[in-house]
C-alpha cells in the first residue's frame, strides 16, 4: 500500500482558531477520500504561530532555525499541501506570506495544493483568486480547482437555494484534492532534490555565456 504524506499549513493566530478548524476539516475529508482509494495517509499540521519568531529571524538572517527548517521540510516533502490563512486587509496574513517567502521557489513545483481562507465577512472571499492562487502559481504548484472561504456566518450554516453550505464546499474541495493527489505519479528521490535558486541562476548565466 502506497503511503501519501499530507501537510496542512495553518496561519491562524489564536488557539483555537477558525483557520485551524478549516484546515483540520479539509485534511479530514482528504484523508477519508484517499482511504477509500486504499492509500495509507501520513498527515501532519504546521501551525505557523508556533514558529512566528523563527520566521521573522529567518527573513532577517537568511538562516532558518532547526524548528523552522523542520516545518519547511514537512511542506516541501509532502505529496499534498493544504494551505489556510486568515484574511487581513483583504489579503493573506503577513505570517503566511513570510513563511512561503522562505521556501525555495522551485520546491513546490508540481505539488498539489488546496487553498483556503477565513475571515469575518464574505466580502473577502475573492482573496482566494486574487492573492492565494497567484502565490502558488508563482511557486509552480498545482492548485486544486475548488478553494474554500469560510466567513464567520458560514460556520453552522447549511447554505440556501443559491449557495452551498460550508460542509458541502469542504467535502467537494477535499474530494477533488484527494483525486488530484491520487492521480499524480509517485515522487522519486530525484523529485525531492531541490536545486538552490542561486545555483539555478548561476547555471542560467553559464548557459547564456555559451
UniProtKB/TrEMBL annotation:
Keywords attached to this Swiss-Prot or TrEMBL record, sorted alphabetically, are: Flavoprotein, FMN, Oxidoreductase
Named from the GO MF annotations, one term is:
oxidoreductase activity
Q: Where do the NADPH-dependent FMN reductase-like domain residues begin and end?
A: 5-155
Q: Which InterPro entries match?
A: CE1759_FMN_reduct, Flavoprotein-like_sf, FMN_Rdtase-like_dom, NAD(P)H-dep_FMN_reductase
Superkingdom of origin organism:
Bacteria
The EC number(s) given in the record are 1.5.1.-
Indicate yes or no for the key word Cytoplasm. Answer: no
Per its UniProt record, what NCBIfam families does this chain match?
LLM_duo_CE1759
Give the protein name, as stated in the record: FMN reductase
Q: Say which species the protein is native to.
A: Streptomyces roseicoloratus
Amino acid at each position: 500500500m502506497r503511503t501519501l504524506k499530507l501537510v496542512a499549513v495553518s496561519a491562524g493566530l489564536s488557539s483555537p482558531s477558525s483557520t485551524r478548524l478549516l484546515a483540520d476539516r479539509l485534511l479530514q475529508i482528504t484523508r477519508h477520500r484517499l482511504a477509500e482509494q486504499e492509500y495509507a495517509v501520513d498527515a501532519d499540521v504546521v501551525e505557523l504561530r508556533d514558529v512566528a519568531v523563527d520566521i521573522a529571524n529567518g527573513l532577517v538572517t537568511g538562516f532558518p532555525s532547526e524548528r523552522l527548517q523542520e516545518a519547511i521540510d514537512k511542506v516541501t516533502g509532502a505529496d499534498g499541501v493544504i494551505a489556510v490563512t486568515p484574511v487581513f486587509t483583504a489579503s493573506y496574513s503577513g505570517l503566511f506570506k513570510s513563511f512561503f517567502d522562505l521556501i525555495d521557489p522551485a520546491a513546490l513545483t508540481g505539488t498539489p495544493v488546496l487553498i483556503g481562507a477565513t475571515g469575518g465577512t464574505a466580502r473577502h472571499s475573492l482573496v482566494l483568486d486574487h492573492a492565494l492562487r497567484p502565490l502558488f502559481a508563482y511557486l509552480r504548484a498545482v492548485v486544486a480547482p475548488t478553494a474554500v472561504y469560510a466567513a464567520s456566518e458560514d460556520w453552522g450554516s447549511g447554505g440556501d437555494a443559491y449557495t452551498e453550505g460550508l460542509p458541502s464546499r469542504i467535502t467537494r474541495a477535499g474530494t477533488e484534492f484527494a483525486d488530484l493527489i491520487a492521480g499524480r505519479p509517485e515522487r522519486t528521490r530525484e523529485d525531492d532534490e531541490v536545486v538552490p535558486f542561486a545555483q539555478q541562476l548561476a547555471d542560467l548565466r553559464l548557459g547564456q555565456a555559451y
